[in-house]
Amino acid sequence: MVHAKNCVPVSMDQFNTVLVKRHEPATLIFFSTWCADCKIEIEKIQKLDNQSAFILVGEFDTIERINRNLSKMKTATDCYFDESGEIRKKFGVKVVPTEIELK
Q1: Is residue 97 a contact partner of residue 28, using CB atoms and an 8 Å limit?
Q2: pLDDT of residue 2 exceeding 50
Q3: Which residues contact 23 (CB under 8 A, 6 or more apart)?
Q4: 32 and 61 in contact (C-beta within 8 Å)?
Q5: Helix H or strand E encompassing 6
Q6: Average pLDDT estimate for 59-63
Q7: What pTM, to 2 d.p., does this model score?
Q8: What's 15-76 look like in SS3?
Q9: How far is residue 103 from each of residues 65, 75, 88, measured CA to CA in Å?
């Protein structure tokens, strides 16, 4: 069983660095642990993990709760915690789950 990496708190500048270093298309998924629809998105990631690149962005939650839930996942997807809400604002995210395709 492969477990998700812990969600890492990042600033907007740090997140921009992550995006610049990326060499393949990816899907950003903004999520929260309390969101039922987000759980469906996570299930989708588990099925497509080897076929697509996903970047999880934790929102409207605590990093402790997100990491506790990620420890139960069967995916090795990268996860970042948007402490300040800057990432959410940059991408215009108002609700979770929200998917954004990056090329």
Answers
A1: no
A2: no
A3: none
A4: yes
A5: none
A6: 85
A7: 0.80
A8: HHHHHHHCCCCEEEEEECCCCHHHHHHHHHHHHHCCCCCEEEEECCCCHHHHHHHHCCCCCC
A9: 30, 22, 18
